[in-house]
Specification:
With 348 residues, the protein is of the alpha+beta class. The chain is 34% helix and 14% strand. β2 and β3 form a beta hairpin. Residues 338-348 have a biased composition (Basic and acidic residues).
Length: 348
């Protein structure tokens, strides 16, 4: 069986929720129940009649169309099931209301643990970080190569990597481009919510591709290894991208300086080196030189030793390389626009 397909989820959908049921579950979309907000809508914690917890994404406005058309779009996404994708529970289409219902993730998002309200708790040891990296890669592998229809995510970032009670990763917000209302600037939404994760070609041409997803995933790998944000401030004015900081250190083999200090030196040096090398390869400025997710998963798992050796010998990692280490151009690089709080528990 091809890699990725054996990981398909087997859960069943509750599917159609009434507006009354979701109002009851969220205490009428009470502010105290809000767990995130993004360009497309707000997310609320809820609890349904059987005691199970849900995440309720109430879209600010929906694409022009009937309730049946909305249901049809949701149904397509609902059929895309994988254990490392955030599972749809169902939807609600009632009058102007367009609502998506997901499984609730007890441990919030990867962003919350790396940079947000849970970062001081240091709950992400090295084992968990490796697991999150591999499982997020598996989710993207499935979307790119095995889902029907195949899906380009378009918004890979740490706020869209959700963690369940066992810290297993589930990628959220796949396919939500379908629900962007007519007239809403998709490129502007993406640029504002995706600062630091955008591939150079997306910044130039505004078209999401599988290679753009790979680039964004590479940034997440560098975050997992270093604990740095995608964009960091220096001297409170200048900013620099995480790739700009990591690449010179990797070229000199100074991986111990890359490692997140919160790990307290408790990590596998070989696995850290592998994660950094794969992350930098994924963020290559030339999209055709990036690996595909078919290559990334075995690399991260240590199953492609020959490919890793070849990667280490690439001119990108040569200490005397003339390849620019200035990294990626970013739209409006003047400030660090990573969300102040762990917004968008179920993404943007």
């Amino acid at each position: 069986m091809p890699p990725g397909r054996s990981d398909e989820g087997s859960g069943s959908l509750r599917w159609v929720f009434s507006l009354r049921e979701l109002r009851s579950a969220t205490n009428s979309f009470n502010y105290d129940n809000k767990i995130g907000e993004g360009p497309l809508g707000s997310v609320y914690w809820g609890q349904v009649w059987d005691g199970s917890q849900i995440a309720v994404k109430r879209l600010k406005s929906a694409k022009n169309g009937t309730e049946a058309e909305f249901a049809s779009e949701v149904e397509i996404l609902g059929r895309i099931r994988h254990k490392n994708l955030l599972s749809f529970r169902g939807y609600c289409a009632d009058g102007p209301e367009r609502i998506l219902v997901y499984d609730f993730m007890a441990n919030s998002s990867l962003y919350a643990h790396l940079h947000g309200p849970h970062s001081a708790e240091c709950l992400l040891d090295w084992r968990r970080r490796i697991s999150i990296a591999i499982n997020t890669a598996r989710a993207l592998l499935y979307l790119h190569h095995y889902a029907t229809p195949k899906i380009i995510h378009g918004s890979i970032k740490t706020t869209n990597v959700l963690l369940d009670s066992d810290f297993q990763a589930h990628v959220g917000d796949f396919g939500l481009i379908r629900f962007i209302p007519d007239g809403m600037d998709h490129e502007k939404i993406t640029s504002e919510s995706q600062r630091g994760y955008l591939a150079p070609e997306y910044i130039m041409f505004g078209k999401p591709t599988a290679g753009c997803d790979v680039y964004s995933f590479g940034i997440i790998l560098l975050e997992l290894a270093s604990g740095k944000r995608p964009i960091e401030k220096s001297c409170s004015v200048k900013t620099y991208g995480i790739r700009n900081w990591v690449l010179p250190l990797a070229r000199q083999g100074r991986y111990d300086e890359i490692a997140d200090s919160k790990l307290s030196d408790k990590f596998s040096e070989s696995e850290l080196r592998r994660m950094v090398l794969v992350g930098l390869a994924c963020t290559h400025s030339e999209s055709e030189k990036r690996p595909t997710m078919l290559e990334v998963v075995p690399l991260l798992k240590g199953e492609s030793k020959e490919t890793l050796i070849k990667l280490e010998r690439d001119e990108l990692f040569s200490s005397d390389s003339m390849v620019s280490s200035q990294g990626t151009p970013t739209p409006d690089g003047g400030t660090d626009s990573v969300p102040k709080e762990d917004q968008e528990l179920v993404g943007a």
